């Protein structure tokens, strides 16, 4: 049913009728009921408790309580929600209708059967793999939605094609907000925040760094030039010479470069990049402006916020780092954002140095079904990589660099598992698994389920304390047993 009158069609239904309360098996039903009472100001909510532990339980709940389930959406929203009959059907009815259609149309299944198979496949993928959907897109959270989408692209959670598709959708929302603010009644001061769609360079933090340092520490350019080799360093010098940019200008801060150079800098870099095989040097993105002085790309804010969230410079709690990261997203706390950018620079330099070290010392080894790399204690900046997002970003950069440098075609198709010390005093290590390097295929990560099974088979003392199930914490002495079990499981 579509809701047109919130009091009549929803509030009174919840207050005066019994509703199906679908909750996770580990959630207190009384607590959930109290939340409903607070949300809808009901003195009493009659409910049917339906514990849910997986999609099979959801299917059963829908079958048994379909009359009590209400969908609260706008009437003009088209969510593509299938009807009950398109998903669920009696076995006898399904077999009879399918057999009749198949006899008339050969082996082509009916539309209803195809829809049922599609839903079943989606639910199967949900249980088996880990992957990321579209970032939140709420009107009054437009800026955060932009940052969320950019975070998925920066950390390689979605494909490049999905990023381009989603950013086109996001552009329409941003344009609508900007158009609304152009009216005389709603016009904003120049000091207020503005979001603009831009076609900018794929160079990390280059507007807050020197152009040279940004090229050296950006994954895209570093891997294409293979900057961990002497030939790569030579090629970079040739690239700078081809652009005709003086080294003095390239090595100083971007905001200190001559205006005559900065005016055409993007076009000059794009032209030279095409000659060196970097045809995707420019990317669709958004810029955030605070007056004339402060300008940040969405990727700048992603790197700054992530660096603050996982800061290891001071012995501060995770909750303190979270508050600081949240503060950096506030338009009134630009100093916090700039400090996050400084931390992000240090992290990116540490990542590039570690990537070069791992490749030059052959730390990446093939374990059969996957590649494996372990950062030992004493490795420079190893404390930085005790954090999940920092280690994941290193893992992704390292795999891209390895694919660029190896001649083994089989290794280019393998996923990567990487481990690093997490807490030396407690004797724990953090392990991350990522899918094979690809620009086009879905970013489905099967390591979450594989890690869980490997830990169970070895009775390892494991800890799943991350949103991504492909990240796990082990005791140091259990690492070898866990790795052997994972090889056996995936072989």
From TrEMBL:
* UniProt keywords, alphabetically: Cell cycle, DNA replication, Nucleus
Which GO terms of the molecular function aspect are on file? chromatin binding; DNA replication origin binding; single-stranded DNA binding
Localization annotation = Nucleus
One GO biological process term is: mitotic DNA replication preinitiation complex assembly
The source's superkingdom equals Eukaryota
Task: Enumerate the InterPro entries for this protein.
Answer: CDC45 (IPR003874)
Give me the ranges of the annotated region Disordered. Answer: 90-113
Compositionally biased residues, Acidic residues: 90-107
Q: Which family does it belong to?
A: Belongs to the CDC45 family.
Q: What's the protein name?
A: CDC45 cell division cycle 45 homolog (S. cerevisiae)
**Which organism's genome codes for this protein?**
Cyclopterus lumpus
- Gene label: cdc45
């Amino acid at each position: 049913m579509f809701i047109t009158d919130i009091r009549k069609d929803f509030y009174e239904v919840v207050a005066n009728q019994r509703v199906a309360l679908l909750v996770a098996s580990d959630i207190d039903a009384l607590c959930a009921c109290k939340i409903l009472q607070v949300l809808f100001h009901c003195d009493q909510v009659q409910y049917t408790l339906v514990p849910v532990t997986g999609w099979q339980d959801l299917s059963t709940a829908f079958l048994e309580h379909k009359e009590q389930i209400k969908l609260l959406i706008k009437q003009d929203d088209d969510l593509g929600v299938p009807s009950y009959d398109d998903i669920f059907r009696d076995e006898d009815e399904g077999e009879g209708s399918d057999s009749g259609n198949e006899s008339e149309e050969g082996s082509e299944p009916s539309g209803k059967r195809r829809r049922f198979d599609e839903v079943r496949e989606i639910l199967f993928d949900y249980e088996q793999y880990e992957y990321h959907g579209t970032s939140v897109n709420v009107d009054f959270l437009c800026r955060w939605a932009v940052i969320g989408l950019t975070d998925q692209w920066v950390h390689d959670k979605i494909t490049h094609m999905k990023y381009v598709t989603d950013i086109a959708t996001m552009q329409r929302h941003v344009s609508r907000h900007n158009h609304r603010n152009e009216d005389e009644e709603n016009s904003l001061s120049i000091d207020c925040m503005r979001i603009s769609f831009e076609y900018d360079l794929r160079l990390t933090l280059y507007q807050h760094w020197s152009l040279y340092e940004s090229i050296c520490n950006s994954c895209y350019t570093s891997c294409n030039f293979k900057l961990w080799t002497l030939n790569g360093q030579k090629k970079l010098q040739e690239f700078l010479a081809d652009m005709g940019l003086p080294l003095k200008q390239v090595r100083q801060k971007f905001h200190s470069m001559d205006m005559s150079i900065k005016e055409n800098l993007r076009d000059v870099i794009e032209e030279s990049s095409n000659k060196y095989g970097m045809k995707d040097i420019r990317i669709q993105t958004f810029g955030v402006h605070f007056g004339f002085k402060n300008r940040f790309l969405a990727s700048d804010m992603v790197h700054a916020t992530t660096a603050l969230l996982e800061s290891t410079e001071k012995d501060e709690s995770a909750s303190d780092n979270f508050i600081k990261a949240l503060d950096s997203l506030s338009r009134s706390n630009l100093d916090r954002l700039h400090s996050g950018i400084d931390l992000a620079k240090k992290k990116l330099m540490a990542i590039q140095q570690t990537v070069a070290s791992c490749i030059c010392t052959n730390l990446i080894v093939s374990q059969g079904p996957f590649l494996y790399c372990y950062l030992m204690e004493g490795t420079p900046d190893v404390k930085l990589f005790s954090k999940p997002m920092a280690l994941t970003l290193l893992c992704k950069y390292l795999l891209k660099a390895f694919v660029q440098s190896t001649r083994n075609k089989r290794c280019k198709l393998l996923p990567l598992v990487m481990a690093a010390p997490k807490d030396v005093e407690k004797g724990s290590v953090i392990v991350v698994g990522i899918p094979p390097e690809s620009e086009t295929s879905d970013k489905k990560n099967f390591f979450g389920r594989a890690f869980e099974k490997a830990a169970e088979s070895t009775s390892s003392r494991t800890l799943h304390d991350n949103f991504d199930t492909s990240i796990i914490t082990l005791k140091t002495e259990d690492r070898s047993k866990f790795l052997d079990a994972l090889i056996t499981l995936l072989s």
